[in-house]
Give the backbone structure.
Amino acid sequence: MPKSQPFSWSRLLLRQTLKNPTKSPLHFSPRRYIYTLHLPTVQTPKPWPTGRISCSFSYSTVSSRAIQDLLAEVEKERHRDREQRKRAGLDTKDIDQEDEEDYMGVMPLIEKLEKEKLKNTGDLNMYEEPTDSDSDQDDERFTRDAVQKRFDEFQRKAKRHQELLNNFVESETLDDTFKWMNKIDKFEQKHFYLRPEYRVIGELINRVKVAEGKDKFILQQKLNRAMRLVEWKEAYDPNSPANYGVIQHEQVGPSVDLLEHAGFEKEKAIIQGVDDDDEEEFDDMKEKDDILLEKLNAIDKKLEEKLAELDHTFGKKGKVLEEEIRDLAEERNSLTEKKRRPLYRKGFDVKLIDVNRTCKVTKGGQVVKYTAILACGNYHGVVGYAKAKGPAVPIALQKAYEKCFQNLHYVERHEEHTIAHAIQTAYKKTKVYLWPASTTTGMKAGRTVQTILNLAGFKNVKSKVVGSRNPHNTVKAVFKALNEIETPKDVQEKFGRTVVEKLSNFVQLQFNCNRNEYLWLESGSLKLLSTKQGIFAMETWFVIVVSLCISYLLKSIFSLVFRDGTTTRKLTATATLPPGPINLPIIGNIFWLRKSFSELEPILRNLHAKYGPIVTLHIGPRPAIFIRSRFLAHQALVQNGAVFADRPPALATSKIISSNQHNISSAFYGSTWRLLRRNLTSEILSPLRVKSYSRARKWVLEILYAMFCLLALMCFGDKLDEKQIKEIEAAQRRMLLAFGRFNLLNFWPRLTKILFRKRWQQFLHLREEQERILVPLINARKTKLQSKVDQSDNKASEEEGEEFVVSYVDTLLELQLPDEKRKLDECEIVSLCSEFLNAGTDTTSTALEWILANIVKHPRIQERLLAEIKGVVGGDGDEVQVEEVKEEDLHKMAYLKAVILEGLRRHPPGHFVLPHAVTEDVVLDGHLVPKDGSVNFMVAEIGWDPNVWEDPMAFKPERFLRDGRGGDADADCFDITGSREIKMMPFGVGRRICPGSGLAILHLEYFVANLVWKFEWTADNGDELDLSEKQEFTMVMKNPLKARISPRLNKSP
């Protein structure tokens, strides 16, 4: 533009129009809206500044010469765009059509300016832009008096508005209130120019902020609809200044047009550079949109060809074509994800479900139609779908795209990742089943169902589609299922009460009552006296006689009242309990009263030989089922793992030890058990956390009580002194050894609390002693953790060289029980710590003792093991070059792993896993397993199965090696979890498998390797080792291991 020509508003108008052309309502770019009430700022008049204030409000036309220049500039822009398209190898057909259509609306604007010019031909100078000679200084609108007048007028309006508000507040009657409300509304609409649609949008925004759930979703849909209407109105209103680029320019200081003659070269360069950047950005965006559109058209064309070819293609070629069509659909989805969306669709994603081609033969020829099914969602509970038809694929897709946003559904998500309960729905011949899943499961569903669930925001759901796989029927069935999800609020409105809360309150009340009763027993003033064997026997038979009488009386009454019940007939009509010895009325199998549980194993072997792999004993009021078959164990614990994953109700003494079954081993199968187990496995037993305790394993290798010291450090996070270790170990062992002596108290708890108050006090005293020792350690850890949080930089610990270790107690302090909505109390934390110490200490130390005993008994095993260690870590002759076998070397020792596995198979620390229970009555191997019974699996008998192991009672680690001589190890790939097949189960199998099995094997490998590497183990005085067993808390050696140990180093280690 030549500098001599004055800058005109129409030129700026056309320039802005070229940069912002009008677009289709489906492809306009998102806009920003600020819904605020703009009022003039109330300020006191200030003295005029020395600089000049210029405020220009000009609406002018141009002369005929200027119009020609504008048209020439338009043609220049089009020519440049056409050349760029040609250089990029793109089609210019659409640009050529613009010459005739004039899609930017420039010509109507010019015609309007020409008419305005012809109407006022008297004074042409009034349409020219102001120059330096036409200053705003002489304009009467900006004089001091005019500004003061406008300020006074606004003050008067503001004062009047405040008076109306005061009258509204002080109104006493309802009629006066409505009168002043109407006056306020009219006054605001007249003087405060706020468009009504923006007032509606503002009100909707305020409501959305406080709404929740489905109400929030409905308000959001209304808000999106209102914003869309405003958006369309502003984009296509011919009277809207935004569409024609009219800019009401208002600024302080010299206006832009004065820069042409004032010599502000820097300012002009900045303005010109900004315009150039905007033009280049617009050109790049338009070029990218054109390229994307061409790709989409090419894919749509390929889809039409493939669908037409699919009509007469069958067999393998047809399946290949279906896969190609799916790939094209996924490619189209990936391209449309990058496309810009309008504001009211922001955050939504659209996926193609299916495209189908139908051909109908008529007299006029073939009529081809395409059907498209699309689904959309925002990954936060809002999902929709639509089905549309069209003569071409793009038309069908466009129709479905518009319709799917008009058919949105709000779906409730449980814990933001899954559904709250299982659902079964059907639509025509299609049935859809949905089940909730845990956080680590992921999405297990077909392609159609998985696409919809992902769009809705679900992450862990299992699904099964039965019957017709028609995509439309499947989509309808899935949406029907999602709409049937019920929340706790829906259940409350449906039944009028919250059953879960009432039940949890009842359980909490019962537990508190039991605790009060225990405290009452503890407060007795009787001294603890040691009972003699004769008194114990007399008490035992006394409770037997009294219990038999009461049981016989109660059973007689119940049989008279419930003898016509149908429940028992229904259960026994199809299946019966597994066989077993004669069940005497009331007393069941009387031999349990004179045999402890440890002496029950020989009797069970005889019963299995007589009745088969599954037998029943009636121990107390509930039947106890014992299984010794590995096939039945796999069927129960793996194939039906969810049903057999429960625990039976704890006995009276067990409830005290486990804090009413609030630990991992005895908790019922549910959310509490999942929380406690997940906390242990992810926070303490994860590979990274286990590796962080490697220094602790090296530390305990050199001291006594090694295994217990290591577990105590992992539990409490501190290296305890020998006195504390012995005190904790003594308290734990007293509780475990005395537990068998108190089985009598479980026979009839309410009666034994009266008859055997002394024994109950002894048991409660042991529990009190355990809490007295462990609670201070827990509180000390809590204080240390709090001080670490308060101090962002613990310089004292750094100076002393201490390292903060995350302990098991640290993870328990912040846990919150999901059902009871509370944190763990001290008694529950004590129970969990006690469980952690017992499970990781006694079982592992027992297994270590058995393995070392067999190494002493079989010197060839020790020699071969030592040779393998030398081959990995190095060493010549009898002198050891490396003092420690490191953890990272253990995976290279195949024979070591074989020795560990053989020790666990031949001498499992526990010959029975903890009793299981079923969540519902089930049939196993043709026998009934009742819900109120307990299921026990014989670990030792399964590991000694002669059908699996040759010479099972011999200690042969070579059985776990492929070639039997120490080649490639089969031990590394041996499935000790039993998921594929059960050959041994020292840690249990299924969902209740021991969570610390990996840690236990690591500890056994580490300690065995280092003990063999540092010492030579031989029998004491050449005596033959006695490998007899004795049942304590675990199956230990009847005669503890005594061996002669000599260091392998020339110097002391």
The two ends are 93 Å apart (CA to CA). The mean pLDDT is 72. The chain has 36 helices and 19 strands. The chain has three domains: 9-250, 277-410, 566-1047.
